[in-house]
Design goal:
By secondary structure, the protein is mainly alpha-helical. It has a single domain, classed as Four Helix Bundle (Hemerythrin (Met), subunit A). The chain has helices spanning about 10-30, 35-70, 75-105, 115-135, 140-145, 145-175, 180-185, 190-205. Helix 2 (about 35-70) packs antiparallel against helix 3 (about 75-105). The structure holds fe (ii) ion. Fe (ii) ion (FE2) binds near residues 11, 15 and 61.
Length: about 210
């Protein structure tokens, strides 16, 4: 029987946004300009958004997506073990986030602490995203119906709330390819697209972060 088609765009665009922010963080750590208060504030603003979005993303996968996939792939020990590995990787990333945050707050910005913390976080997050994209997400089609995938997306949406969505959408589309911008716009209701254009994106840009 043919499976429903599951559109993974929002997941993959989110992964691109995490990679983009990691690059920005690496650049900020390498420039060692955090002793400049304005620069520090910009980096911390960008960091806060990145960290919030990453934690929401991982929490939703652990609580909703992996258990749904585990049900759909229950007969495959290999897939179940991959799902457990992906969850364990989330747990390994948490202390690396905490160390990067502590390093950023450290007034001794000339130390190597931030560069080391950012390098460890980048390594771990990038390899996790690659693992998920190669060995987890390709099996979403097999594990879930389109209806179940939409329930997961709805769960993520209610977790974000309206306030969270106001930050998520401009963040996820920051530097996205025109093709991805079109795809994400196509899944947003027209009134939300208008709110995004007139309010959310300008507010995200005004907030200022390592992006500008
Ligand atoms: Fe993910």
């Amino acid at each position: 029987m043919a499976k429903d088609y599951v559109d993974l765009t929002i997941m993959l665009v989110s992964h691109d946004a995490f990679r983009r922010d990691i690059r920005r963080l690496q650049k900020a750590a390498a420039s060692r300009s955090l002793d400049n208060p304005l620069e520090r504030k910009r980096v911390q603003t960008g960091w806060e958004i990145f960290k919030t979005q990453l934690l929401i993303h991982h929490e939703g996968e652990d609580r909703d997506l992996w258990p749904r996939m585990a049900k759909g792939l229950a007969s495959s020990a290999e897939h179940l073990s991959t799902l457990r590995e992906l969850e364990a990787e989330h747990e390994q990333i948490d202390p690396l986030l905490a160390e990067a945050e502590a390093a950023m707050a450290d007034p001794d910005t000339q130390s190597d602490r931030l560069a080391r913390a950012v390098a460890a976080l980048a390594d771990s997050l990038e390899s996790h995203l690659e693992h998920e994209e190669k060995e987890g997400l390709p099996y979403v089609q097999e594990a879930l119906s389109e209806k179940e995938w939409k329930s997961f997306i709805a769960d993520q949406r209610s977790n974000l709330g309206f306030k969270g969505a106001a930050e998520f959408f401009p963040w996820v589309l920051d530097e996205a390819t025109p093709e991805n911008v079109d795809k994400v716009n196509s899944i947003m209701p027209a009134p939300l697209r208008l709110v995004m254009k007139t309010m959310w994106t300008p507010a995200y840009q005004t907030k200022g972060s390592w992006t500008n």
